[in-house]
């Protein structure tokens, strides 16, 4: 296993948070604008009877909204994670952590606390951990279990971020044998496995491989939200690495639109989370109508987290109200009803899907 110095690992985590907060790291092209839900003028439904709760991997969640993996690995992220976790616990939604690699490999209590704070702040919330697919090849199952035990995780996300790695001067660009590694961990780990992209989407073909490997859920994390290659381009510029800067900029808008990725993945797996440019409760409603079980957001929670848990809670409550309004005017009392609601697919997303017979 290639060890990295603590300063390099921690600084990279801190760089990421600062760039997301301060720079233009948004892309367009989710495809949500091409998904038109059919209005129900006679919903025959009491708004107050709408139930947005879901069952996810054996746990009851109050709403199909996930605080996506963002933070951890630097002392500066501890209070952010505390605010996010407390909000997740109080609103009954799920929360994912950023990569736990630093917590496993660095002997630093302040780094470890940036992760363990989530369970301290939210003892009953659905919290899932996070490791990279490349690390699964390096770690034995006991070390992966340490990531679970670190936060008493209810599940473990395995992130796929090979484009991001290719834009980092220090990136891990060996993508071999990851499917087999995911399969081994899916079979042997004590908690369910979620495989997630990081902003470039998952194709139907890849979803089929992941389903065969036994993963419990797929998070598409498609194109249209935060661009990690764009983030790495900013880091490369600061590090005077012009080749990586050019590559990061060139591939800034690379990927499968979130709407199209969702459609492809739900055809291959029964439990799909849609993230990547999800910004409103209406976006959540659209991905559920496409067949996903839930929608995930990352960057929209970051600024509220700097203000404290109450600001995050308010943002979650806004999203739930927007989602419930969409459910009301499509006549959907439950999330299962919303998954069956009528929609029209238009524009570039329809063209993409029609040219991708799987």
From TrEMBL:
<feature type="binding site">
    <location>
        <begin position="277"/>
        <end position="279"/>
    </location>
    <ligand>
        <name>FMN</name>
    </ligand>
</feature>
<keyword id="KW-0521">NADP</keyword>
<dbReference type="Pfam" id="PF01070">
    <property type="entry name" value="FMN_dh"/>
</dbReference>
<dbReference type="GO" id="GO:0070402">
    <property type="term" value="F:NADPH binding"/>
</dbReference>
<dbReference type="InterPro" id="IPR000262">
    <property type="entry name" value="FMN-dep_DH"/>
</dbReference>
<feature type="domain" description="FMN-dependent dehydrogenase">
    <location>
        <begin position="26"/>
        <end position="100"/>
    </location>
</feature>
<dbReference type="InterPro" id="IPR011179">
    <property type="entry name" value="IPdP_isomerase"/>
</dbReference>
<dbReference type="GO" id="GO:0005737">
    <property type="term" value="C:cytoplasm"/>
</dbReference>
<feature type="binding site">
    <location>
        <begin position="69"/>
        <end position="71"/>
    </location>
    <ligand>
        <name>FMN</name>
    </ligand>
</feature>
<dbReference type="GO" id="GO:0004452">
    <property type="term" value="F:isopentenyl-diphosphate delta-isomerase activity"/>
</dbReference>
<feature type="binding site">
    <location>
        <position position="130"/>
    </location>
    <ligand>
        <name>FMN</name>
    </ligand>
</feature>
<feature type="binding site">
    <location>
        <position position="99"/>
    </location>
    <ligand>
        <name>FMN</name>
    </ligand>
</feature>
<feature type="binding site">
    <location>
        <begin position="12"/>
        <end position="13"/>
    </location>
    <ligand>
        <name>substrate</name>
    </ligand>
</feature>
<feature type="binding site">
    <location>
        <position position="165"/>
    </location>
    <ligand>
        <name>Mg(2+)</name>
    </ligand>
</feature>
<comment type="subunit">
    <text>Homooctamer. Dimer of tetramers.</text>
</comment>
<feature type="binding site">
    <location>
        <begin position="99"/>
        <end position="101"/>
    </location>
    <ligand>
        <name>substrate</name>
    </ligand>
</feature>
<feature type="binding site">
    <location>
        <position position="196"/>
    </location>
    <ligand>
        <name>FMN</name>
    </ligand>
</feature>
<dbReference type="GO" id="GO:0008299">
    <property type="term" value="P:isoprenoid biosynthetic process"/>
</dbReference>
<dbReference type="InterPro" id="IPR013785">
    <property type="entry name" value="Aldolase_TIM"/>
</dbReference>
<feature type="binding site">
    <location>
        <position position="226"/>
    </location>
    <ligand>
        <name>FMN</name>
    </ligand>
</feature>
<keyword id="KW-0414">Isoprene biosynthesis</keyword>
<keyword id="KW-0963">Cytoplasm</keyword>
<keyword id="KW-0288">FMN</keyword>
<keyword id="KW-0479">Metal-binding</keyword>
<dbReference type="GO" id="GO:0000287">
    <property type="term" value="F:magnesium ion binding"/>
</dbReference>
<comment type="similarity">
    <text>Belongs to the IPP isomerase type 2 family.</text>
</comment>
<keyword id="KW-0285">Flavoprotein</keyword>
<comment type="function">
    <text>Involved in the biosynthesis of isoprenoids. Catalyzes the 1,3-allylic rearrangement of the homoallylic substrate isopentenyl (IPP) to its allylic isomer, dimethylallyl diphosphate (DMAPP).</text>
</comment>
<dbReference type="GO" id="GO:0010181">
    <property type="term" value="F:FMN binding"/>
</dbReference>
<protein>
    <recommendedName>
        <fullName>Isopentenyl-diphosphate delta-isomerase</fullName>
        <ecNumber>5.3.3.2</ecNumber>
    </recommendedName>
</protein>
<keyword id="KW-0460">Magnesium</keyword>
<feature type="domain" description="FMN-dependent dehydrogenase">
    <location>
        <begin position="174"/>
        <end position="341"/>
    </location>
</feature>
<feature type="binding site">
    <location>
        <position position="164"/>
    </location>
    <ligand>
        <name>substrate</name>
    </ligand>
</feature>
<keyword id="KW-0413">Isomerase</keyword>
<feature type="binding site">
    <location>
        <begin position="298"/>
        <end position="299"/>
    </location>
    <ligand>
        <name>FMN</name>
    </ligand>
</feature>
């Amino acid at each position: 296993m290639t060890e990295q110095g603590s300063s390099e690992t921690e600084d990279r985590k801190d760089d990421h948070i600062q760039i997301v907060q301060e720079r233009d790291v948004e892309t367009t092209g989710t495809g949500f604008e091409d998904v038109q839900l059919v209005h129900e003028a006679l919903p025959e439904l009491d708004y107050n009877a709408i139930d947005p709760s879901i069952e996810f991997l054996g746990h009851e969640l109050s709403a199909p909204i996930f605080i996506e993996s963002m933070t951890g690995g630097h002392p500066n992220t501890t209070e952010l994670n505390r605010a996010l976790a407390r909000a997740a616990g109080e609103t009954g939604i799920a929360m994912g952590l950023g990569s736990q690699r630093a917590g496993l490999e660095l002997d630093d209590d302040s780094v470890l606390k940036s992760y363990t704070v989530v369970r301290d702040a939210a003892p009953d919330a659905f919290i899932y951990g996070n490791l990279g697919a490349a690390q699964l090849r390096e770690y034995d199952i006991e070390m992966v279990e340490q990531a679970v035990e670190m936060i008493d995780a209810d599940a473990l996300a395995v992130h796929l971020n090979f484009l991001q790695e290719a834009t980092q001067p220090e990136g891990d660009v060996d993508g071999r044998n990851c499917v087999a590694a995911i399969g081994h961990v899916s079979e042997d780990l004590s908690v369910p496995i979620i495989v997630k992209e990081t902003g470039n989407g998952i194709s139907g073909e890849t979803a089929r491989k992941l389903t065969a490997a036994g993963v419990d859920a797929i998070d598409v994390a498609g194109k249209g939200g935060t661009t990690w290659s764009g983030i790495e381009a900013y880091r490369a510029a600061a590090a005077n690495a012009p080749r990586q800067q050019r590559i990061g900029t060139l591939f800034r808008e690379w990927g499968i639109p979130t709407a199209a990725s969702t459609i492809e993945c739900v055809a291959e797996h029964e439990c799909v989370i849609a993230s990547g440019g999800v910004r409103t409760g209406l976006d959540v409603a659209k991905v559920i109508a496409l067949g996903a079980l839930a929608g995930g957001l990352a960057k929209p929670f970051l600024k509220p987290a700097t203000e404290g848990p109450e600001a995050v809670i308010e943002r979650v409550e806004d999203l739930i109200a927007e989602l419930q309004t969409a459910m009301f005017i499509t006549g959907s009392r439950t999330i299962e009803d919303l998954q069956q609601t009528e929609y029209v697919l238009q524009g570039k997303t329809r063209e993409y899907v029609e040219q991708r017979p799987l």
